[in-house]
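Consider the tokenized backbone below.
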């Protein structure tokens, strides 16, 4: 019985470690996607970027920000597969079309932009919390004090 207990605990710990590793990988991929998307925005704004690269950047960023997918997410497997294949493919092709010198500068701008954004992001959290506190206050005032 003790062997079974140890085996179950080991299995749970290994599964938990795999989940944590997956979460770390997903966080890294998300940061990379964010950085690349900002670099694409800066590349679009640069005059040295060719028109065909700008055209593909618009399509890429439009697909990235669009709430509508080519294949809806509720379709099993295929729904998320388009996000895992089409979006990285669009980003990779867009980056290949940007001149190397422009791309290096845009990646630096993106890195600086993300760092500056982190420093000021807490203000948005305060505003959101204040907004919800006001909403709760108004609801309580409406129902409790009338």
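A designed sequence for it:
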């Amino acid at each position: 019985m003790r062997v079974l207990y140890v085996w179950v605990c080991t299995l749970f710990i290994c599964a938990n470690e795999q989940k944590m590793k997956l979460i770390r990988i997903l966080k890294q991929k998300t940061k990379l996607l964010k950085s690349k998307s900002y670099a694409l925005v800066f590349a679009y704004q640069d005059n040295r970027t060719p028109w065909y690269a700008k055209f593909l950047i618009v399509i890429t960023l439009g697909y990235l920000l669009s709430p509508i997918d080519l294949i809806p997410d509720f379709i099993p497997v295929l729904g998320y597969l388009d996000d895992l294949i089409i979006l990285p493919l669009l980003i990779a092709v867009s980056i290949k079309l940007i001149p190397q010198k422009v791309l290096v500068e845009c990646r630096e701008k993106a890195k600086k932009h993300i760092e500056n954004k982190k420093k000021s992001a807490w203000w948005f959290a305060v505003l959101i919390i204040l907004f919800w506190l006001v909403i709760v206050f108004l609801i309580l005032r409406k129902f409790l004090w009338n």
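The mean pLDDT is 79.
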